[in-house]
C-alpha cells in the first residue's frame, strides 16, 4: 500500500496551522525552502524521512502521526497486511515503511528499502535530530557517516547521532533492506 502524499501534506498543514506558524517560519526552522514546504503540504512531492522528521519536530508532533492518521492507543498492533509501505521513491535513493506508531514513545522503527545502485540517485547525506540505530536485514550498504564510508552487510548494526551527515549507499543492484530505529535522545 502506498502512503498518500496528499494525506501527509494535509497532516503537516493541519499541525502548522494549529501551531499558528507560517510556512516561512517552519521552513526556516527546518533549513528548507518555503517552496519545498508548500509542495509537501500540497502533496506535490515526496520528501526524505529526514525532512519529514525535521518538519514534525518543528511542529512538535511525532513523525508517526504525520505518516499515519489512525487513532493512538497504548497498544499498537500493526499487521503486515495493514502496514503502509513505500514512502519515497527511487530518485530519493530509498523508500521506507513505518513499523509502529505511537504518540507515547520517542522511538520510531522503520524499514528502509535502499534502491539498487543503478537507480539510486541520492548522493547528499541527511541530518536529523534523532539518534539512529540500524540493523541490516538483507543485502549490504555503505554507511556514509560524517565523511567516512563503512561497509555493512546482513546482520551488521550501527548506532549513531542523526545530527551528523549520513547516507545509506547501495553496494550493488540487489539493493538492501535496513531496520532503522529513530530514537529521540532528548538532548
Summarize the structure.
The protein has 187 residues and is α+β, with helices and mostly antiparallel strands. The chain contains five helices and eight strands. The mean pLDDT is 80.
What does it look like?
- By secondary structure, this protein is α+β, with helices and mostly antiparallel strands.
- The chain has 2 domains: 5-65, lambda repressor-like DNA-binding domains (434 Repressor (Amino-terminal Domain), Orthogonal Bundle), CATH 1.10.260.40; 80-183, Jelly Rolls.
- It is built from 5 helices and 8 strands.
- The protein has helices at residues 5-18, 23-30, 34-41, 49-58, 63-67, and strands spanning 87-89, 94-98, 107-114, 131-145, 148-153, 157-161, 166-170, 176-183.
- Strands 1, 2, 3, 4, 5, 6, 7 and 8 form an 8-stranded antiparallel sheet that branches.
- It starts with a helix and ends with a strand.
- The mean pLDDT is 80.
**What structural class is derived from the secondary structure elements?**
alpha+beta
The helix count comes to 5
CATH class of the largest domain: Mainly Beta
Helix content: 10-25%
Q: How far from one another are the termini?
A: 35 Å
Low-confidence stretches: none
> What percent strand?
25-35%
* Radius of gyration from CA coordinates: 16 Å
Q: Choose one word for the global shape.
A: globular
Main beta sheet strand tally, sense and closure: 8 strands, antiparallel
**What is the domain tally?**
2
The counted number of beta strands is: 8
CATH topology of the largest domain: Jelly Rolls
CATH superfamily of the largest domain: Jelly Rolls
Secondary-structure element order, as H and E?
A: HHHHHEEEEEEEE
Average pLDDT score: 80
Any idea what the CATH architecture of the largest domain is?
Sandwich
InterPro entries: Cro/C1-type_HTH, Cupin_2, Lambda_DNA-bd_dom_sf, RmlC-like_jellyroll, RmlC_Cupin_sf, TransReg_Diox_bact_type
GO molecular function: DNA binding; DNA-binding transcription factor activity
Organism: Lentibacillus populi
Protein name: DNA-binding protein
Amino acid at each position: 500500500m502506498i502512503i498518500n502524499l496528499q494525506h501527509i501534506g494535509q497532516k503537516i498543514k493541519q499541525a502548522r496551522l494549529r501551531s499558528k506558524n507560517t510556512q516561512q517560519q517552519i521552513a526556516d526552522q527546518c533549513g528548507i525552502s518555503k517552496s519545498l514546504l508548500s509542495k509537501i503540504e500540497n502533496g506535490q512531492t515526496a520528501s526524505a524521512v529526514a525532512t519529514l522528521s525535521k518538519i514534525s519536530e518543528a511542529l512538535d508532533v511525532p513523525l508517526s502521526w504525520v505518516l499515519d492518521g489512525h487513532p493512538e492507543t497504548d497498544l499498537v498492533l500493526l499487521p503486515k497486511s495493514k502496514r503502509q509501505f513505500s514512502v519515497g521513491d527511487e530518485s530519493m535513493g530509498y523508500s521506507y515503511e513505518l513499523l509502529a506508531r505511537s504518540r507515547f514513545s520517542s522511538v520510531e522503527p522503520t524499514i528502509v528499502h535502499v534502491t539498487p545502485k543503478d537507480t539510486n540517485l541520492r548522493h547528499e547525506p541527511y541530518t536529523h535530530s534523532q539518534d539512529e540505530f540500524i540493523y541490516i536485514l538483507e543485502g549490504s550498504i555503505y554507511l556514509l557517516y560524517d565523511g567516512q564510508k563503512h561497509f555493512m552487510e546482513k546482520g551488521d548494526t550501527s548506532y549513531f547521532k542523526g545530527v551528523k551527515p549520513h547516507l545509506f549507499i547501495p553496494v550493488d543492484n540487489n539493493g538492501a533492506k535496513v531496520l532503522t530505529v529513530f530514537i529521540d535522545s532528548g538532548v
